[in-house]
Input
Amino acid sequence: MSSTPFSLVSLDEACKLLRRGEVCAFGTETVYGLGADATNSEAVLKIYQAKNRPRFNPLIAHCADLEMAKSIATFDAVAEQLATLWPGALTLVLPLRQGASISDLVTAGLNTIGIRIPGHELARKLIACVGKPLAAPSANPSGKISPTSAQMVRDAFNDDVPVLDGGICQSGVESTILAVGQGQVTQLRAGALTRDKITRSTSIAIDLADHAAPVTAPGMLKSHYAPNAKLRLNAMRPNQGELYLGFGTHHDAAGLNLSPSGDLAEAARNLFAYLSELDAKGSATIAVAPIPDLGLGEAINDRLQRAAASRQ
Ligand code: TXA
Ligand code: MG
Output
């Protein structure tokens, strides 16, 4: 009989750990998060330590419902409208509410806060049980591939962090981040909820962040999501010695295909798991098939470009 691995915990155990200021990873519909009580600086510090994350990079506060979200940020009319898309794969960067008891380590000292109500029911149950917003970056060592299963979290941290298993992540790429302020909505990160969908359901126009401007989402470092192998993008086929991450009709029997039918949602869901599976085979270069830059393709290509960016 197989016993429960040490690092997997129940909802009740996860809730107790978080309440007493420990970290715990949990599944969401985007990627797994490494959570801590966002009101407790000592707890939040443990996230930065576990991930080896730069302290200037603020964290998303995950809320169970709108009431909790409104207790820590102020919502103007545009934010209210965007909030109708919650729960879901959308993070809103909003003015931090004065007097909100959020640790400075969550906002990295900014007067704004990134908030998300996750679509995953178990994640919302966990937050509701703790009764506090949960700060949670993706549950991977800083700069590495984001985990989309409990097993990927356990591998990334050598079973050193407790994990609440939420199954395989439905979306597979992180949330879309929008900054809302001064009558403008700016996309800071392409993500699982496409701009098309947001604009179609809210009629709100979204600006793209000016990449020449100083980094406004500090986590948007050029090199991120780095596998050990080099990535060669837009490759029609693998060269000798390369492993191939295919898409649609571009495929190679020795590699993996993100979606044989060319479905971007399926490709997003498989992206991080397949990258890490190919990476584990130890080849020096992974060649990646072209992915159309439409809809979810925007988020997929963003992650691939960051993964390909040279790491000095
Ligand atoms: O889907 C997701 O968003 C996942 C799951 C766990 O919710 N979380 C995630 O967190 O991707 P993380 O830490 O890997 O990315 C959060 C991003 C970072 O780029 C950070 O700079 C940005 O959000 N961010 C957070 N608060 C911000 C703020 N106040 N202003 C600007 N950017 C902010
Ligand atoms: Mg991340």
Remarks:
- DSSP finds ten helices and 15 strands in the chain.
